[in-house]
Amino acid sequence: MASCPLSLLSAGTTGKITGVHAGEGLRRRLYALGLIPEATVTVVTRDRGSIIVSVCGCRYALSRGMAMKVIIAPEVAAR
Amino acid sequence: MKKTISVALTGNPNVGKTTVFNTITGSRQHVGNWPGVTVEKKTGRCEYADTSIEVTDLPGTYSLTAYSADEVIARNFIIEDNPDVVVQVVDASNLERNLYLTMQLAELGRPVIVALNMVDVAEGRGDTIDEKRLSELLAMPVVRTVGTSGRGLDRLLETIIAVAAKGEKHTHTIGYGDEAEALISDLVRILDDDPALAGGYPLRWLAVRAIEGDSAVLALIEKSSVAGAVQARLQQIDLDEYEALLADKRYEAIGAILPQACTMCVRKMTGSDMIDRVVTNKYLGIPIFLALMWGAFQLTFAVAEPFMAGIEYVFGWLGEVVAGSIGNEWLASLLGDGVIGGVGGVFVFVPNIFILFLILSILEGSGYLARAAFIMDRLMYVIGLPGKSFIPMLMGFGCNVPAIMSTRTIEDDRDRLITILVNPFISCGARLPVYILFAGVFFGRDAGNVIFGLYALGIVVAILSAKLFRCTILPGESSPFIMEMPPYRIPTIKNAMLNMWEKGSMYLKKAGGIILIGSLIVWFLASYPAGVEYGSEESFAGMIGHLLEPLVSPLGLDWKIAVALIFGFVAKEIVVSSLGVLYGADEGSAALSDALLADPALSMAGALAVMVFVLLYMPCVATLGVIKKETGSWRWAGFSVLYGLVVAWILAFATFHLASYFLGGA
Amino acid sequence: MSEYHKQLFAGFLGLLYLIVGVAALIALVVPDIKLFELFGISGDPAMGFVLVVIGLTLISGFFELSKKIHEGVAYLHVGIGLALVFGMIWFLSVGAEFATLAIFEGEEITLEMIREAIVPQLYLAVIALFGFIAWGKEFSAGLLRD
After folding, report:
1. Do B491 and C86 touch (CB under 8 A)?
2. What band does A79 get if pLDDT is binned at 50, 70 and 90?
3. B327 burial class (0-12, 13-18, 19+ CB within 10 angstroms)?
4. What domains does chain A contain, in order, with CATH numbers?
């Protein structure tokens, strides 16, 4: 499936990160948290302006602006 | 002679680091500040097997880049203070992310011990961890610990002593691949030419950080004699690409280590995930949050009641004893009116503040507070602030001092500055006595609604000011935020109590120090020049009041209120006690209420104006001090005073005239 | 089987909370309804709101479970948790009030005062407690201890 920004995924979807298009500081920060290319993320909730994702067992809240910068290839949901 | 070993305790946030620290050092802790910055520095000491171990609790960080002040502090401490041993507390249920920091620590060259915490949780979930194998792969000792029960901590201390005795540097680091390694070794060779750098820093680490574009490291190199050579070498490559590559390699190394040392069971949706679905639900999230907040305030005020009554009783009794037993009239007045009256009036609110902080600690410990910030993010975004700013706002209802200190978790400087500047408008516990007095006297049955209205006004002013600052002096978008949502936990009473004590004691110190001095000044100004009647128009206090009367008369107020407001700058509670002095009535007694009601200069509209003014006019001395400390300059502290005064005057003026119009009696 | 019990419990308790909460809001407008007084319901906007929120949380659980969505149990547990928390808040508040009266104001606590203190958020929390005893352990085992 084609890649799209993390912020556009619906709750419950899982996907692989294909790229992080952020400035230097922000990207380093995202990397330290485990949001790196090839990592698998799951969107837990996205009811609000920001979304909660879970990546390698941790949950983070990302604002939508931040989530726009993380590009993801969603897995075809086997839900 | 006893040996002393210095240990730096580091780790990701929310891995139980503080619990480990508390269990090791017990009560022998010292809380201070890191030099130059305002992040709390905690050190503690412990004696074990004839060795004295000095533990420094570094701020919790995910990595050792220079993204936040915390990270800079943590790594500077390890590099510059040269602790004998670095202990990283690792959440065993979350190894992958935790080991990222381990990889970076390894490059700093100090001996590292991994304290594998929360193994019980991981194994309860079905994971297995072979710490011997992990230790071989990482080339550093790995010790299992359970911070809460203290299990494994003896082993940890023994390992610390053993590692310190060897005193070897840690040399095992991961490889970044041929191309990057070639670059690193080039840089190391260049850097080695500057003796200042080669003596003080691990060169490999400097090289790696320089490649990753670390601003602090680049600034350091900039100043060295080899700056030109380093720049030239760095210009040959595409830094962006390398930075991602290095992070990838670290995870690759972790990815290679983990399967050899542990097996992870497949994660299903955890309890935390499920709770998150409920409390951040589109429709239920905010109502649940509001309900909990209401509960928190209900609890704060209701449960504090017997304690407050007890403290009032004790101070009342003390006052009587002093009045009865001290013959010297001057001394009796100083102790009775000045010290006991002033400090006692403030101490009454200690239970309120402690209970509020206890509740906030429980909410924080359970993991809910992070969700609250998340829920409020949308709303905060409209104001132009990140969701994280919400927690300091909430704490401001207790006391602005710890609230402003808690803004440290906000990374963006402008966001943080705005959050600090609007915090004094959040009505803290100290302002409540003023409301209770005036609303109680002038509004009787409606007092509750009036007080609620004041709290609401404070919030509205804070929001509008934030918006205003965002549009004018501190422009910019609120920065996009990432926040860890820690797993829900069942908070322990002990940790909640410790946390409460830490924050509450700031208030106690304020009550003990500043307010005592403030009360004495009030007493002095009200009793001199010698011979005047206490608190009369002829006293210094009266003179000051008359001087300022033209300023407050448009608000429907007279000189007595003006004096009380001036004194209220020391601490807003003092407004009440100084009115007691000026009206010559014991505070808290019906006499002061009667005196206020009988004063022809005060009307209902005037009372409203006083309350609005007290709510907004300026941060108290303690808050001002904290603003100065946290923003690093008197400029912003001064700005906050000036801005507050202007806003307060305008709104009090409007309130007075509107209220006079609607309520009739001016 | 057990899921079905949870669903029924969530629906039943949620409905009770919702009814009582709405009643507390109605009592704000219409004073002196005898039936309400019998159940200790008085007009209180904040408390009414809280009761409604707890009721809605539980009922959301009921609907999710009836759609066979397993995660619906989270609504049940959060609902039970909220019910217990607010029962406890009331209990502590009343206890503190009685303590102040008895110790510092020398008043006696009469049976009448105790009867007045028995309000919905207290007795409904007792029902919620049964739910907690039945399923709480299994759920909280999945959470971390600090």
Report:
1. no
2. very low
3. exposed
4. 4-74 (2.30.30.90)
